[in-house]
From TrEMBL:
InterPro entries, sorted: DUF6882
Name of the protein in question: Uncharacterized protein
UniProt-annotated stretches for the region Disordered: 224-266
Pfam families cross-referenced by the UniProt entry: DUF6882 (PF21813)
Taxonomic classification: Bacteria, Bacillati, Actinomycetota, Actinomycetes, Micrococcales
Amino acid sequence: MPEVDLVTLADAGAFVSHEHQSHLADSVPMRDWRIDGARSAFVYTDGAGAERAVRAHFVGTSSPDEGTWLWGWDNINGFPEPFVKQAERVRRLGERYAIREFTHAVLPLTDDLAPILVRAVKAVTGVTAHFSAPTGNGSTRAWLLLDDPVLALPRPTVARAVGVVTSALAGTGTVDHRRALAAWAQQRGATLTEAGEDVVELTLDDGSLQVRFDAGGRIAGLGRRLRATPRPPEPEPEPVAVVEEEPEPLPPPLQEAPEVLEPAPRRGLLQRLLGL
């Protein structure tokens, strides 16, 4: 079985996390937001001035003032179980595979620890959008996963894949490019095949993208091929849960925003990518 550790999981979540955060920044205006922990919801005003409530999962807090990361599963604030359920899921996986960063409630904070942990959490949970919110307590920030069809990514295209790879390489600090690319393909429903020595090919709706790796396993070149007529979208694959559990109920409707939607389907990333 492949090694399962923080770096492995953070790499697996890197490209899809970068894509989803870029999508939120470019396409999902969020103004006048607030967190409703009692109802496991993140409430924001969209670009049309309408208030929307989406499911939120509390991951943890980072405090540069104190130099600490505190996991949400420690739950010192007594949040309801659905709000910390995904953080608890991470803790259980940490216990199963001896990942110390997932099982210690408080970790020493470094400049890049919070983003690394959040990318790893996305690989574990399959929820790939997040929001980092100031808490009003000095420099402390709360890190939340956001889970709702209204925030879903558009279908992947060749141009989108090129943008994801090139921009992510500049900013994610990814160690294993092969793992990050394979995880992105699985999360996004793209087909990844070997196309030669140190070359893989991504098959997408409107064509294909060849990705060449250097001797160190880093992405060194891209080549695209477009179809004259894009293929029709394929059905979404059946999700494979990392941990067997009952479907999570919807939070009670919010008075200010009663249209809380169904959560996005989970991807079975870990089982397919890491063989768990």
